């Protein structure tokens, strides 16, 4: 959603990493910002 493409420039800009903050029985969690009308594809990086 870059301003470069007339977007609102909302997002995570380059990536995120999991934090050691438990959530729903799992030891790590992420907090992401999605732009309006966003689609999301997550890929596990090992």
Rg, nearest Å: 13 Å
Distance between the termini: 27 Å
Mean pLDDT, all residues: 83
| Structural domains: how many | 1
Q: Per DSSP, what share of the residues sits in E-state strands of 2 or more residues? A: under 5%
Low-confidence stretches: none
Share of helix among residues?
Answer: under 10%
- Total number of helices: 0
What is the 3D form?
elongated
Main sheet: strands, sense, barrel = none
Q: Please report the total strand number as a whole number.
A: 0
Structural class: little secondary structure
Compact description:
The chain has 46 residues and is largely without helices or strands. The protein contains no helices and no strands.
Descriptive notes:
The chain has 46 residues and is mostly loops. It has one domain (1-37). It is 0% helix and 0% strand. It has no helices and no strands. It is elongated, with a radius of gyration of 13 Å. The model has no long low-confidence stretch (mean pLDDT 83).
Provide the fold topology.
Layout (H helix, E strand, L loop, with lengths): L46
